[in-house]
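Troubleshooting: if your tokenizer reports a length mismatch, compare against these two reference records.
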Amino acid sequence: MIHRNSIASYRSITDLGDRHRRIYELFLMRGHPMTDRDVKLAGRFEDMNLVRPRITELVDLGILVECGSVVDPETKRMVRQCRIRQAIDSNGVQLTMF
């Protein structure tokens, strides 16, 4: 289940393109870290080049964060995993992002 705060955060993003929103929505729906290839497959994108730059831009904007790396089963190379950034204060309370 998607938390209502996540839904509100998603709806508050007004300055992103359609592909950015679609990728962000995939992260919301999945609820766990994903590689660029995971996003490509989940979103049924035709090419990694439609996904990778948008994920990098979402990371640069602070919306997503790189959170680990795994071996890609297709390329056998280490690749990044990303997740939605969760802002936490010093008391462990989630802050609003937008």
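Reference record two:
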Amino acid sequence: MEPRSAVLSLRGVALSARQRGGAGTVDFDLAHREVAVVELDEDSDAGAFVDICLGLVEPPSGEVYCLGQAWSVQGYHDRLAHRSRIGAVIDSQIWPAH
């Protein structure tokens, strides 16, 4: 799926510096009205995954797109408006830092 046709797209995204460079990177697309269950090997990556998807932090590598536009080129108000379209529920003992 092209980033333009997805609500949320991750391309070659590493959740932490230890995953940078291909092994363990994430390619992910979520279309309008789709729901996804994402399981991660490390509970500590759950908070990073949510923060990266919401555009709160830049991934160590790769790019995240919201509605076809990279989070990295969106301004503060655009990011805030787009975040209202993304939800997350985390089944973990770790609460993500927001």
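Descriptive notes for reference record two:
- The mean pLDDT is 79.
- The CA atoms of residues 52 and 58 lie 6 Å apart.
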